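Service request form, structural biology core

Requester: graduate student, group of Dr. S.
Request type: structure prediction, single chain
Budget code: on file
Notes: please return the result as structure tokens.

Sequence provided:
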Amino acid sequence: MDLRQSIEHHQACRDEAEATYKRLLNPDFEGTTWRRTVSEAERDVQAALGAPRDLTEIPSALQQSGRVMEVLRFLLAPPLSQDQFKLLCPKWPKGTEKSAGALSEEAARAVAEVFSSWRDATRTAPFLEAGDAAAKASAIAATAHMMAVNRYRTVRRMELAHQQERAVLDLLGALGYRKRESHLVDQPGALAEREFMHATQFKTADGSSHEVDVAIGLPKRTILALECKVSNDATNSVKRVNDVLKKATAWKRQWGRFVITGAMLQGVFSSKEPRRFLEEGIELFWSHRLEELRDFLLRFG
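Core staff response, request fulfilled:
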């Protein structure tokens, strides 16, 4: 199949994937999940405001737990992602937000200074400066809603991603591939033919490493580095594709012909994305057409 035919084939697959994603959307199920997400976010915002006493003792609260950081980031104008906040505050150890680890005094004060400069005065000033209980309730609701939108999209995508990876692993098992414990792949042949590893690290030319979702051993010491990507919308898909292209470039520089980068896609992707993958020599697969990955692997025996 030449490039033009391949692009046409994968454009059709893209359309099918989007239609499949739409069929999965159910207003009753999605509505219930959304309301639960909002309720959980409201609980977390209330708890976060209580820890630093309505934002008046942020440093001391952060020295107890970094978990309050998610709420603090969403109380900014505009709300900032972890990576954006890290740019503004290099001393902040962003891993403490998820782990709830304590910040050092220096890091906590640095975070508080950035928060003070960026906080949304419209939401925070009425209850910070005037003790307005109604304003506080309104700020909690507004902040929780913003957090819930972000959480919902992430949770929905992660649920689909887990199902997608599980389908790939089940296929490999059915084809007789043997699963190995994950370890750093740092040389050709590190993974034998008909073996695979889930969520493992590939060394790159600069000495760093990138995680690959599934590494599959092929003949002649070659490895298929398969990235599984789920996208909720066309805009989101650009980030997912860029992530694969970045890894593919790093792996190709280090491994040359010993690595084949592949992408397993599910959900909604921009119409431009199949061409971007194929022009970079990336093997493209779709979750609703899992048999194409099976056929690809069977060609190797």
